[in-house]
Amino acid sequence: MDLTLLHEQLHNRLPLGICLLNAEYQVLYWNDFFSDRTGQSSATVQGKSLLELFPQQARYLKKKIDSVFVLSNASFSYWEHQPHVFPFSSSRPITGEETLMYQNIEFLPVEWAGESVHTICLVVQDVTELASYFLAEQQLSARLEQEHAELKALNDKLSMAQNQLLQSEKMAAVGQLAAGVAHEINNPIGFISSNLQTLQDYAARLLKLTDFYEKVISKTGNDAYLAMQRDTQQRLQFDFVRQDLPELLSESIDGIERVTDIVKNLKAFSHVDNAHWQYANLVEGLENTLKIAANQLKYKVEIHRDYAADLPEVYCQPNQINQVFLNLLVNAAQAMEHKGHLYLRAWQQGQSVCVEVRDTGPGIAPEHMKRLFEPFFTTKPVGSGTGLGLSLSYSIVQKHQGEIDVHSVPGSGASFTIMLPVAGPASAASAVP
Amino acid sequence: MNLQLTELQRDALQELMNISMGQAANALAQLIDAKISLSIPKISLVAAAEFQQIFSTDQYWFTRQSFLGSVKGEVLTLLARAGIETVGGLLHYALPLDERSEKELLLELANILAGACLRGFSTQLALPTKVSMPTLFQAAMRQADSFRWSSTLLLEVEFQLEGTAFDSRIVICLEPQSVELLLEKLNKLLED
Ligand SMILES: Nc1ncnc2c1ncn2[C@@H]1O[C@H](COP(=O)(O)OP(=O)(O)OP(=O)(O)O)[C@@H](O)[C@H]1O
Ligand SMILES: [Mg+2]
Known about the structure:
heterodimer; A: 3 domains; 19% strand; B: alpha+beta; Chemotaxis protein chec; 8 strands
């Protein structure tokens, strides 16, 4: 048995690339793994520099080989970091996706001269199968992760939609209640108001009549009558009654007028047909809503108005838009805990109408800016804010294909601007005759 | 098995390690062109629970590498997270390191350091071994009672790259039978 021949044959049957080098990087031998893939036999490359045979990889190979010579120790190259050191293709040209071969390489010291290495052996292992399995696994898990994230986003969206639905249902219910109450109050208010007017008229006449009687008595010059009149008037404190009666009546009429106004606004706000699309004046809507929110603003806030003249009516769902105004006004009022100024502005910009609600409250922290429109985002104490106001507003404005913008300088206030297309959203316009 | 190490054996082993580690450090300094200082090698017989202590730090990366020959075991390399960029620069890696080149650097460094130590150790004691490719090792999950041995011999040395925050600890761990073999070898050396 010829052992050398056997060795040689074995070398060439190994599923490994084997290449021997001397200290000058010259190839002493390589096995069929290399010759089959380079087309150059061991004999032809003998004495040639490996670095010149693979110039593209020369730098990397030199570094690894030098480390073996300097440290007299093996060094390694991993497919994860350097997948294709030798430009060989994978071994599946027919069935597989033809790719470059993934390789692990060992650089082993094999012959020594005293303390230093003078021959090294490169062992190249084809790990394409393993690598593609591993990479596929990685891709799979990345895909799973992505799908998971998508699912989660979908879930979030769903629960957001559900909450918005709840919120708008709540608003609708409040609206209906308000409409009902307004309707009930409307009648009694009506007759109280007209009765008061009549009363005011009657009272004026009664006072005139009293004046007339006084004049008549004084004309008689009868001291006894005059004294009687004076005593009775004093007893009844008639001077005061005469002065106070008209004031009381006109105050009451003022009051009842205000109540009438509020009821009218309530009705306007809660227009029972909730999703009705129509042309509406945004400034009117804002003013109506302002009256609803008035008790939150009344004492502490000075209101400044700046409305452009001749604003076109906007095709919208007025009740929904009023809800947006209400949210913005209430937020502004809540932000300005002490005194402040509320600036309301409306103007036209191209084919849109813009309405701005600006306050001089504490403003919004930069880190909160991005989250304002998230459902449930609130900085208000538990139980006082649901954090749904702005998210609902956002979705209403979106449904109108409009925009809602925030600006805030922390410490000096916040401004919310909504911008609605005059013609309404494209879909609504085409759906309506 | 109850392994024991006499004072004499320990000193001899320490001396041998000192010489071989010095050589390793020199070779390394030559490769990366930087000054390296070495701690005195530490020799200890430890139980599994003590061994587990090595991993109770988040300041280091861990790699492991097995060796096989006349003695068997594993080399653990602890590489400081601090200063790794500097070392990357010295080894001509493109900075800043991305995740992939960082891993490549860690494995290369571990191979250089652990390989040098192990070679020193095995030539000094004439116990030839071959070392396998290093791999990164997430040790934190291992429980002390999951090890299959009760005590092991640790040969430990620390490298410090002068002028940087980088340091590294190499721990050569011998399996029990190999420890016996090593002690026999030592005794022979001491008799001579
Ligand atoms: N004008 C404003 N000034 C300062 N911060 C504001 C202003 N408007 C809104 N915010 C901030 O945005 C958060 C979310 O507002 P949003 O209207 O969505 O919910 P909320 O007012 O907290 O609760 P809800 O409207 O349900 O009562 C508020 O908690 C507040 O921190
Ligand atoms: Mg709110």
